[in-house]
Amino acid sequence: MTNLFDLTGKKAVIAGASSGIGVQFTEMLAGQGADVAILARRYDKLVAVAEEIGAKYPERRIIPIQCDVRQEDEIIEAVRKVMEAFGQIDILLNNAGVVDAVPIEALEEEAWDRVLDTDLKGVFLMSKHVIRHMKERKYGKIINTASMLGLTASASVPTHSYNAAKGGVIHLTRGVAATYAKHGITVNAIGPSLFRSEMTENTLFTEQALKMYNAVCPMGRPGNPGELNGAVLYFASDASSYTTGQTLFVDGGWTII
Ligand SMILES: NC(=O)c1ccc[n+]([C@@H]2O[C@H](COP(=O)([O-])OP(=O)(O)OC[C@H]3O[C@@H](n4cnc5c(N)ncnc54)[C@H](OP(=O)(O)O)[C@@H]3O)[C@@H](O)[C@H]2O)c1
User: Which PROSITE patterns would you find in this protein's record (predicted)?
Assistant: First the structure.
């Protein structure tokens, strides 16, 4: 029987893969047979990730490329480098993100812009410059990392800029999916709840915050490393050939209550 999840020979790009869940996605895609270009601002971290995962999968190419997703010129150059190295892009994972927890009355415009420019405009710019290559080949799988906070809000944690950005990602996913469906390109999103990473380590993984989270989350715990991989693999592979514009919340049931 055909393995619907096989990624042998596929070429992937992950924006936001120098730390956190992006590193796990890099390892998962490489493990399923894909070559992966990894993008972020901290080049030294990308090199370390490429070396570590490359050592586990020596037959795969893991290419670190420094790129700030807020800067269109850097994205154009990064995509050029990926095309030079791989010749094609089958999978784009827009995973770069930052968060802020400042209530709207105290939120500075610069802080708002930082979150919106990274989390939403970054998805727009990356998609813009990759999708033209996918369109030429009539094949592409775009996966955007949204968040449960793109659908739900929190009274105790005021992530207003992040809510706006991730809500925007969810609906941008639908819009781009609708336009490019006839071009063989699927566009979907994942909506994680709480996973340990640099972003969450010192804020949401405190004893008090975890107690609150676990009390509300139907599964009573945060996500474990690797528990987002299944959703990403589904959207990255031909298993999702008739699925587009969807956001899959991987949240222990948080958004169903
Ligand atoms: N962890 C969770 O519980 C959770 C829940 C819901 C959604 N998410 C989303 O998951 C994604 C990954 O976050 P994480 O939790 O793994 O946190 P993380 O460890 O802080 O990772 C964030 C990644 O985004 C990159 N990044 C940030 N700003 C960037 C920029 N301007 N240009 C390029 N790359 C940039 C960072 O690299 P550099 O700093 O090197 O640039 C890093 O690789 C984010 O979109 C986040 O919103 C996470």
Answer: ADH_SHORT
